[in-house]
UniProtKB/TrEMBL annotation, chain A:
Residues 268-332 are annotated as: Disordered. It comes from the Bacteria. Residues 5-241 form the ABC transporter domain. This is ABC transporter ATP-binding protein. SUPFAM superfamilies: P-loop containing nucleoside triphosphate hydrolases. PROSITE patterns: ABC_TRANSPORTER_1, ABC_TRANSPORTER_2.
Automatic annotation (TrEMBL), chain B:
Coiled coil: none annotated. InterPro entries: Permease_MalE. This is ABC transporter permease. It comes from the Bacteria. Keywords: Membrane, Transmembrane, Transmembrane helix. One of its GO terms (cellular component) is ATP-binding cassette (ABC) transporter complex. The chain crosses the membrane at residues 28-46, 58-83, 113-133, 159-184, 209-229, 249-270. It comes from Planosporangium flavigriseum. GO terms for molecular function: phospholipid transporter activity. The keyword Transmembrane helix applies. The keyword Flavoprotein does not apply.
Length: 332, 276
């Protein structure tokens, strides 16, 4: 069962420049959350702060009853065992084979016999589709394989909270789709709390239960997927629909003049695209944290854009339900 | 720890107490971080379980990169001392003391200095590059997240390995250097083999060798700690690793020569010298 992560008033700065300030959000138990943001808004910094690799200037990170930034080093190592982290490039140990990499946490933290370790490792490697690559060194395999091996290593201690640092960067669309499916399936099997940091909107639109958006040194919005996808808030709307019109500019946020000029020119925002259906687990059974499509919209009296929640929508074709049942990653 | 301006000049300039105080505090912060790291590394040395496998691998690696250069450097070193002393001792009619002077120069000074150069240049740069590459590939972060302290796991075994190899290397340098001096003196300068060997005890004494080994031990520790620190704080991609290696070698050289002076001064105060 997952653990809730409650972030309160978190502020971090580097050399006097704030990265983001007063970020408060709750990652609900067992749900998948996505943290979005333009490049350079400190998404990875947020993730590293969340696991205590960086100390925030202010604020708290509550994991059950422990406040992570104020823990002693010993307690911090204790709490970190609840976490599994997939780093951007997998962060595998270059001197070890994939097998040893995945076995590493087990050898360090458990008293399991080598045969038990073997069975756990091969189970995890099979889950990420890397059976047969045990003897390879990280330098000998592709970026996608490194990422999947990193995921296997992150999963090996059965973590309660799993963090993904840009799982889709540097992967082709097909592998991204497989990885997204794997994430959803993992959530179904483990009920752990997931946080995905990314700037791939396709992932953000179809995978999570909750979306957060970091922008201009603060958290612009955090809430259920349908809330953000049906939001008229300019920043959220611009980012989630990958449009040029809106407050986010090429370099940084646009200034007032530019926005005025845009308004004066009568540039009209295109209508919100329909909300795609959420990516279901590949065995067809619902996840524990899953909510019925359109529930949030109904409860809050929001009319979703026309065409929402219809399966096999052309705009998100690569995640359509039809493609999912022959995936080799099914573990259960 | 760094040569040059503080890590963050902008913060220093904007400091509440003005830029002077800002530069001072920002500069001190770097040294504070380094000392904190040293303490962590020292504590790591005594934490159980000691990483025996990593230690053996590192000791093997350090010796494999340093034995040959150390031997090759110490042969000419011994020869140069013999060359310098040869003509001088002949002029004052003290040829039979060439051996004594040669031994004392090599065992007391040249040995530890050559060891320091090789340990800092070969072993230190390799350690720094290795840890720096791991740092920017996020391997060290991953290790911490997996609940393992990289200082205990990676730095402590490297420091111990570097200390051990430095001590052994110092012995090697002494032997090869004295042999080089002997060969040069006997073959090229027409010195007498017997006189060269017999005068060994004239100036030198056993504490000289012990002092040399203590120096080597310290040099090994300093080189490994500085290299590890620079490696583990590398940032800014591959270029950052290159910069870290460069700085680590420069800083280690400077530190080693300073420490060498201090230890030598203490040694002369503590241990009575022959003929005094």
């Amino acid at each position: 069962m997952g653990v809730e992560v409650r972030v309160e008033g978190l502020t971090k700065s580097f050399g006097g420049h704030p990265v983001w300030a007063d970020v408060s959000l709750t990652l609900p138990t067992g749900e998948i959350s996505v943290l979005l943001g333009p490049s350079g808004t400190g998404k990875s910094v947020f993730l590293k702060t969340l696991i205590g690799l960086l100390k925030p200037d202010r604020g708290s990170i509550w994991i059950s009853d422990r406040d992570l930034p104020r823990l002693s080093e010993r307690d911090l190592y204790e709490v970190r065992r609840l976490f599994g982290v997939l780093f951007q490039d997998g962060a595998l140990f270059g001197s070890m084979t994939l097998y040893d990499n995945v076995a590493f946490p087990l050898r360090e933290h458990t008293r399991k016999s080598e045969s038990e370790i073997r069975s756990i490792v091969s189970e995890k490697l099979e889950m990420v589709g890397l059976t047969g690559a045990e003897k390879k060194l990280p330098g000998e395999i592709s970026g996608g394989m490194r990422k999947r091996a990193g995921l296997a290593r992150a999963l090996v201690l059965d973590p309660e909270i799993i963090l993904f640092d840009e799982p889709d960067s540097g992967l082709d669309p097909v592998r991204t789709a497989y990885l997204n499916q794997l994430i959803v399936d993992l959530n179904q099997q483990t009920d752990a709390t997931f946080l995905i940091v990314t700037h791939d909107i396709n992932t953000a639109r179809t995978v999570p239960d909750n979306i957060g958006l970091l922008y201009h040194r603060h958290l612009a919005m955090f809430g259920p997927r349908e809330m953000l996808l049906s939001s008229e808030e300019p920043v959220v709307r611009q980012f989630l629909n990958a449009q040029r019109v809106g407050p986010i500019g090429m370099a940084e946020e646009k200034d007032a003049d530019e926005l005025e000029a845009e308004a004066a020119a009568g540039v009209e925002l295109p209508p919100l695209p329909p909300i795609p259906p959420q990516l279901p687990p590949s065995n067809g059974l619902p996840r524990r944290a899953q909510r019925p499509a359109g529930q949030w919209c109904r409860e809050n009296g929001v009319v979703p854009p026309p065409g929402s929640f219809e399966t096999n929508m052309p705009s998100t074709g690569r995640h359509s339900v039809e493609n999912t049942h022959e995936l080799p990653v099914v573990a259960s | 720890m760094s040569v040059g301006p503080p890590a963050n000049p902008e913060v220093a300039r904007k400091h509440r107490g003005g830029p002077v105080v800002g530069y001072a505090t920002e500069g001190l912060r770097i040294y504070g971080n380094f000392f904190a790291f040293c303490l962590d590394a020292l504590r790591g040395l005594f934490r159980r379980p000691f990483q025996v496998r990593e230690f053996i691998q590192q000791a093997w690696f350090i010796s494999s990169v340093s034995i040959l250069p150390a031997a090759l450097v110490s042969i000419p070193f011994g020869a140069v001392i013999a060359l310098q002393l040869g003509s001088l001792t002949r002029q004052i009619g003290a040829q039979s003391f060439t051996g004594a002077a040669s031994v004392i120069a090599i065992v007391r000074e040249a040995g530890p200095i050559v060891t320091a150069l090789i340990v800092a240049g070969a072993a230190g740069s390799a350690i720094c590059a290795d840890l720096g590459a791991r740092k920017i590939r996020e391997e060290l972060d991953a290790m911490e997240v997996l609940g393992i302290d990289p200082i205990h796991r990676l730095v402590a075994p490297r420091v111990v390995a570097s200390m051990l190899i430095a001590v052994l290397l110092n012995g090697l340098v002494n032997v090869v250097g004295v042999a080089g001096g002997y060969t040069f003196n006997v073959m090229m300068q027409g010195g007498t083999p017997g006189a060269y060997l017999a005068s060994f005890q004239a100036l030198g004494q056993l504490p000289d060798l012990i002092a040399g080994e203590v120096k080597a031990l310290l040099f090994g520790a300093i080189a490994a700690i500085v290299a590890s620190y620079k490696g583990m704080t590398a940032k800014g991609g591959p270029k950052g690793v290159g910069d870290a290696v460069n700085q680590s070698v420069v800083i280690t050289f400077m530190l080693l020569f300073a420490v060498n002076f201090v230890v030598t001064a203490i040694y002369f105060q503590v241990v009575p010298q022959k003929g005094s």
